[in-house]
Amino acid sequence: MSSMSTSAIRLRKKKNVKKGIQFCLMVCGASGTGRTTFVNTLCNRSVLPGKDSDDPSTAHHEEGIKIKPQTIELELDEEGTRVSLTVVDTPGFGDNIDNEACFAEILTYLERLYDDILAEESRIKRNPRFRDNRVHVLLYFLMRRLSPRVNVIPVIGKADSLTPLELAESKKLIMEDIEHYRIPVYNFPYDIEEDDEDTVEENAELRGLMPFAIVGSEDVIEVDGRRMRARQYPWGIVEVENPRHSDFLAIRSALLHSHLADLKEITHDFLYENYRTEKLSKSVDPSGIMSASGMTGGGMENESLDPQSLASQSVRLKEEQLKREEEKLREIEIKVQREIESKRQELLARESQLKELESRMGRGETQQQMPGGFGGLGEEEEAEAGMER
Fold this sequence. Notes:
It is a single chain. This protein is an alpha/beta fold and about 400 residues long. Helices cover about 50% and strands about 15% of the residues. It contains nine helices and eleven strands. It has helices at about 5-20, 35-45, 100-120, 165-180, 195-210, 250-260, 260-285, 305-370, 380-389; strands at about 20-25, 70-75, 80-90, 135-140, 150-155, 210-215, 220-225, 225-235, 235-240, 290, 295. The strands form three sheets. It has a six-stranded mixed sheet with strand order 2-3-1-4-5-6. Helix 6 (about 250-260) crosses helix 7 (about 260-285). The longest helix has about 60 residues, at about 305-370. Keywords: GTP-binding, Nucleotide-binding. It comes from Friedmanniomyces simplex. One of its GO terms (molecular function) is GTP binding. InterPro entries: G_SEPTIN_dom, P-loop_NTPase, Septin. Belongs to the TRAFAC class TrmE-Era-EngA-EngB-Septin-like GTPase superfamily. Septin GTPase family.
């Protein structure tokens, strides 16, 4: 890793320790997929309550989806880096016979958060206490209609219920479906020519794990003198943080450490900017037809948002950001040079004035010392004065 990237990471860590980080995670999945256990394991505490058993007399009622955001404070490392983590749970998702309304409900929620940002940016005087609640990453559910609004990471919950062969086959089939249906997921983008070796190696490894096979547990048991989160079975123990048993450690590190900043940047620079463009274009075009964004009416078919495009968009956004920063530095440099030149000219003008003043003062003293000067009369003038007397 280059010294520049290392110093940038250190500076970011220092800033994060001082100010803290705001990060928003949404989890979607039908009941029984391990959504609650995963969140509680990720946060190392009970954040989401378990679902009560269904009442047989009301089991046929379809209550629909509920969106429940909850914010907690986590300390990520020994340096004291804090994250204000908002977990958005979606109980009821996928539990109905017709789940079409679930898509619209979640999409409306995501876009409402974008609208809040758009409204705040449009104010002349912004609220310093305004909180950005945009969702930076969504886990579990693969949805084409939500992917243009949020970074989606595919996850297999309760992975310990599958044999190694079944798990490998499930991962293979899921990734084939993602590629076939061009579902734009967050695939840990990297550029071999631009990024350093560590970044390329790390992102390639994470991409190879997708979809992440997760085993969660809220139970802490002792194994060989070590206390750990694990699941106890008659045939053995499944360790949550053992890479041979689960991808939990990899996804936790990606979400709360290595890729947290990248997820936030893509949310703001790409996903939100796309939505902002569409929203403003729609407000200008009364017909609601937006050829620039590839959307007509209420549709959301945007073929440019496949995984490869998302990777290239991320690289392009970073390049544009670097160009903007370089332009700002050049503008600052030009401004400083102009100020220096202006001060130099001002000093030269004052020096010239000072020399001219000194010259005048020197001429005045010379005239005083010269005969007939201002200091007295000459000999002829004195003689004439005596004759007159």
